[in-house]
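Hi U.,

Before I forget, here's the chain from the pilot set. I'm dumping it here mostly so it's searchable later in email.
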Amino acid sequence: MIGLLSFPALLILIFLRVPIGLAMFVAGLVGMIIVTGDASLPFARLKAETYSTFSNYSLSIVPMFLLMGHFATLGGMSQALFHAASSFLGHRKGGVAMASVGACAGFGAICGSSLATAATMSRVALPELKRYGYAGGFSTATLAAGGTLGILIPPSVVLVIYAILTEQNIAKLFLAAFIPGILTAAGYMIAISVYVRLNPGSAGTRPRKPYSERMRALIAVWPVLLVFISVVGGIYLGWFTPTEGAAVGAFGTGLIAWLAGGLNRATMAESFYVTARATAMIFFIVLGASFYNGFLALTQLPQEAAAWVGDSGYSPWVILIVILCFYLLLGCLMDSLSMILLTIPIFWPVIQELDFALVSMVDLQSARFDTLMASGADLPAVLLADAQTMLVDGQELSREITRELGLRGVSEGMLNRINIERTAIWFGILVLIVVEVGLITPPVGMNLFVINAMDRETPMVETYKAILYFVASDLVRVVILVAFPIITLMLIPI
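Structure:
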């Protein structure tokens, strides 16, 4: 009961404008004192929790990605991305808006922050949109929606935090986010196309650029491609860990910014200062969440919730949809990082108890059989042919056949571990997408206020009207990804 009552108390603190990290810390500290009846244990935990939280090696990836985003801005990468995209798309109806979305996607690939992507690309794209006759509400809505790509397209700071909380592989989560990220960008471009056809006076066009100029603009984005391929490709190929990859990316973008003339002693000091402030804010939120979640663990709330769901008899899909709807509503009130830190320790044990059957034993056996065939194993042709026929027909191989084939890792225990991992990856991407939708959902979507603050001349209600097209695109995409998990998981090997 105390655990449940802590939620309204926490929300009251947040509505009173108490910083989210401090609110979670206070709720956790006071809750522990009430549960234990003694202040000595909570304060002793404070000493240990502070060290264990901040000494987590995986968290060092956060300041590196933030620094990489600052260096990328100083290196003129945001301008280069927008110029390249607008060179190819600007002459089309709504093309400059589509170019803004494409540039946001590219910048998000080296930034990892939604608000930073929205703010940076707005400074670059908003004047151009206004120059070519785009309506204020349509312009601000486009940039608010495009900014959300920063937390989905890898590398993503929020995905890193989610991976740490659920003890999942960061590289696999990054890989799983690719296709949903591409679908998001494509969906936003479709929304733009629909909007300008229904509202022809809301967008102008710019002159068609010759192909020679387009090629020069495309070549100018080589630093972005180099950094992205080096970081993400290096992680996937096993050249370095995600943390090492973030360090490589920060060094690479810093070097590019220096060569471009944007990085000097003053701008470097400012970048370090801004990164340190942002990192301190994030780390304090992480500490507050860790303390609050420790209190919830004492109350046994996550375990009780998981047990209740397991005994309720509700369909796993119904429970998943309810959780996603909760995230959609909460996303209108809180930033994505705070939501992840606050809710995942509660919802993840619940999701773990649900069986979505993402991988069957036949799927597992087929994957191991394909690996066996690729290895060129010397086995009787009849045995291989019979096994292949059974798997193609959807029949599970018997234990005797798997033993004769020498297939390893086809036990029920392995199947459960694989299903839990794939469920965690799929659920994480869904949560991130729904949180992303919350960032642009009226009336309190955070990205809407960030962008509108940069264009005071545009009434907020005009931004609300235009953003509904992008929200509709997001909701359609959520439905598709929920109905077809394979879209998210197709790049993740079994």
